[in-house]
Give the backbone structure.
Amino acid sequence: MHPFEYAAPETLDRALGLLGEHGDDAKVLAGGQSLIPILHYRLARPRVVIDINRLPLGDIAVENGRLKKKKKRAPPPPIGALVRYHQLEESDVIARRCPVLGEAARLIGNVRVRTLGTVGGSLAHADPAAELPAVMTALDARLAVASPSGRRTVAAREFFTGPLTTMLTADEIVTGVEMDAVSSYGWAVEELSRRAGDFAVVAVVALVSLDRRGRVDDARVAFGGVADRPVWARAVEDALRGREPTADALAHAAQTARDALEPPSDAFVSGAYRRHVAGVLCRRALARAVARALGRT
């Protein structure tokens, strides 16, 4: 690695002060699953690495139906940025309020990665093939962001701006995520990867809620791996809302999603293959989400 200074602040204000002081010359260390390899390959050469693992950003709670990080003072911050992937898998609160997060977490990497990797780290890293950015896009989550000059909230559907690129400035930290509980929704995460635990070639996240007549009351769909950022499939939602979720209706919605995509080709698969797989996985995800929604209603 390129030599650097190391700091491990115990308060958010101190961490933000260090970021404000060093700016682009600093990197934030959370789970380290992306940063450490980047440092080893010298793709980044920061003067300072700021370890935020001592900050109190690792709990999950619910307030007014929303999933949030615990805190005594108001307003409470959201699901903490230092919540680990394995916590999403194991949390009873997540299982009851937002089970799609647990299903997505189980697809990430391996046990070591899920033990160390963090929610905030995944979102800030913004790999377009990662599971959590796609899930947060589907959920229409809000990211809490802090800097020395103040706090702000950014919609997940606006946060990701390109491959490994977000709206974060050099002196900002993601402190957590907030989303409405979707306990009444059916959910599914479908993905194709070259090997278990690899980044997805294509990933689809689907959430569906049904009204008392069995028609689609709300639908939320997002793709990963098909563009330079997560793709919100609004056309799918419009195609399903208010309709009976028959096999034909789901197939039509999936085709609508597929036709709107223009995935890139790479060393592993062609864009045409990605597009085809996206349609297949979208249909499967919608069918599983509807089946779960029927069980919940």
Q: What stands out?
A: The chain has twelve helices and 15 strands. The chain has two domains: 5-180, 186-296.
